[in-house]
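re: the backbone from monday

yeah here it is again, tokenized this time
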């Protein structure tokens, strides 16, 4: 069955960086767009970024554009999110999800258990 396992979250100071990873299994990873989505406390799910099958095309929410970079390694079935210049408003539970933006919103069919990112001094 489809499994998505995120890791790499943690507590970081404003301006800091984190790199999230998502290990995928149970499906042919290279044949699917992938996304990152997040949910802040008390708020709805927010799409963050998507990446195409081979990684040649990416897109970002305006709130993270220029600070976050999505990438993938199809040889390792792994999705990444490099997050730089983190802000307190980036605090959320981050999920990887199978599919591009239109497929994962408003709710993804397949997503992991999430990894917590907390940005605070």
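seq for it, each position gets an aa:
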């Amino acid at each position: 069955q489809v499994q998505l396992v995120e890791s790499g979250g943690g507590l970081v100071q404003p301006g800091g960086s984190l790199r999230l990873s998502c290990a995928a299994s149970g499906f042919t990873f290279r044949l699917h767009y992938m996304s990152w989505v997040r949910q802040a406390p008390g708020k709805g799910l927010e799409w963050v970024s998507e990446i195409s099958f081979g990684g040649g095309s990416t897109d970002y929410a305006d709130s993270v554009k220029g600070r976050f970079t999505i990438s993938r390694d199809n040889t390792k079935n792994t999705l990444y999110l490099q997050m730089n210049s983190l802000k307190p408003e980036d605090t959320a539970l981050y999920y990887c999800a199978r599919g591009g933006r239109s497929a994962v919103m408003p709710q993804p069919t397949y997503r992991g258990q999430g990894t917590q990112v907390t940005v605070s001094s």
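The beta strands are 3-7, 10-12, 18-25, 34-39, 45-51, 58-60, 68-73, 78-83, 92-98, 115-119. The mean pLDDT is 97.
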